[in-house]
Automatic annotation (TrEMBL):
<comment type="similarity">
    <text>Belongs to the EutB family.</text>
</comment>
<keyword id="KW-0170">Cobalt</keyword>
<feature type="binding site">
    <location>
        <position position="363"/>
    </location>
    <ligand>
        <name>substrate</name>
    </ligand>
</feature>
<comment type="function">
    <text>Catalyzes the deamination of various vicinal amino-alcohols to oxo compounds. Allows this organism to utilize ethanolamine as the sole source of nitrogen and carbon in the presence of vitamin B12.</text>
</comment>
<dbReference type="InterPro" id="IPR010628">
    <property type="entry name" value="EutB"/>
</dbReference>
<feature type="binding site">
    <location>
        <position position="193"/>
    </location>
    <ligand>
        <name>substrate</name>
    </ligand>
</feature>
<feature type="binding site">
    <location>
        <position position="288"/>
    </location>
    <ligand>
        <name>substrate</name>
    </ligand>
</feature>
<dbReference type="InterPro" id="IPR044941">
    <property type="entry name" value="EutB_N_sf"/>
</dbReference>
<feature type="binding site">
    <location>
        <begin position="160"/>
        <end position="162"/>
    </location>
    <ligand>
        <name>substrate</name>
    </ligand>
</feature>
<comment type="pathway">
    <text>Amine and polyamine degradation; ethanolamine degradation.</text>
</comment>
<dbReference type="InterPro" id="IPR013785">
    <property type="entry name" value="Aldolase_TIM"/>
</dbReference>
<feature type="binding site">
    <location>
        <position position="402"/>
    </location>
    <ligand>
        <name>adenosylcob(III)alamin</name>
    </ligand>
</feature>
<protein>
    <recommendedName>
        <fullName>Ethanolamine ammonia-lyase large subunit</fullName>
        <ecNumber>4.3.1.7</ecNumber>
    </recommendedName>
</protein>
<feature type="binding site">
    <location>
        <position position="296"/>
    </location>
    <ligand>
        <name>adenosylcob(III)alamin</name>
    </ligand>
</feature>
<dbReference type="Pfam" id="PF06751">
    <property type="entry name" value="EutB"/>
</dbReference>
<keyword id="KW-0456">Lyase</keyword>
<feature type="binding site">
    <location>
        <position position="194"/>
    </location>
    <ligand>
        <name>adenosylcob(III)alamin</name>
    </ligand>
</feature>
Amino acid sequence: MGYRSILAGEQYRFADLRHVLACASPLRSGDELAGVAAADPVERIAARYALADIPLADFLRDALVPYEQDEVTRLIQDGHDAAAFAPVAHMTVGQLRDWLLSHAADHAAIGALGPGLTPEMVAATSKLMRNQDLIAVGRKMRVVTAFRNTQGLPGRLGSRLQPNHPTDDPRGIAASLLDGLLLGAGDAVIGINPAGDNVATGIVLLDMLEAMRTRHDIPAQSCVLTHVTNTIRMIEQGAPVDLVFQSVAGTQAANTGFGVSLSLLAEAREAALSLRRGTVGQNVMYFETGQGAALSAEAHHGMDQQTAEVRAYAVARAFAPLLVNTVVGFIGPEYLYDGKQIIRAGLEDHFCGKLMGLPMGCDVCYTNHAEADQDDMDSLMVLLTAAGVNFLIAVPGGDDVMLSYQSLSYHDMATLRSSFGLRAAPEFEAWLERMELVDAHGRVRLDAPRQLGRLVAPDLPA
């Protein structure tokens, strides 16, 4: 089935859904690299006119990746909730966009709709939206999850404390961890990217985090972001695993490149659930994604990178995660060239993830060879906070010394909470108050560094 539109007297034809979705995407370097981008801005607008008139039901008939070849497609189609879809089954993509922006589309209505939307419908709708539309709808949506504290509540902004170290030195990690705690970061997760991706290193780091957490009764969850197979082995060896982490993508071929499958993720989730380590909930999975992941693995099946990204959210949704975040500028300028493209992608990913029913966060970041700087990241962190993002990632000084990329700092989290009148997760905030690290308004206390000795002395490894 083809699609067409007429713009300024010229007719534009698009061979199928994959073609019109790709041409309708905002300009980004990854789609140009893949050869799927619109030829020029006029064709891009023509594709959006065509896309706006496509019935949502078409996406249920035309799989972008063949059902027989791809378990993600099978997950999407077999798990589609026809009853949830029924209220919008008569709509086109453009009509769904208009409804989402209407007063009728409140938190409850959008939440009920989510299981009825396929990722391709969601991606299509985002392509018709301005940045302010993505923000306006994004802030309506709330996805609440829980493990040792509660994430996603109104008036709250979570943070991942990322104390990476280039040699996995426990003392260096502990110093970064304490720096973050003193600035009120870490309620979403204390998550370490290990330099050495092996079971032995992971257990050492988990034991250190567990000793810190239990000594001070910190109501936060920890995670070592190693491969899911390593986490399963750590659970088997009795390690104190809170969350299971894995990077995921939107096609079976891309996930195979990551060394994962849906059955492996299900096995890992069951292993983590068996530990029952959560105190206020049992959402045990943590997923990371990023536009360009499928393309970089040459596993995008001709899709534009944003549509492939939203299919990854279908994978994440199947496992009831505590946290999901896009690492928006990490893959590099080959996929998101500059600050403008990174900002747009971050807003798209948040909107699409939330509409799919995910507890969506973001690593607001860029690599040093991208045409971006910290001012761009400041803009994106403010826009995402306005859009109601569940959590953001922070590293010491905004500079990850292990992964060699630029992110947000612990100070940025304090700034955002103060500027927007937001607080940390309630259980974590109560702990911060008890430790005299924040005041009654949730603001970092000027004398918080005086608490350093009380926190650090018993925990730094020899």
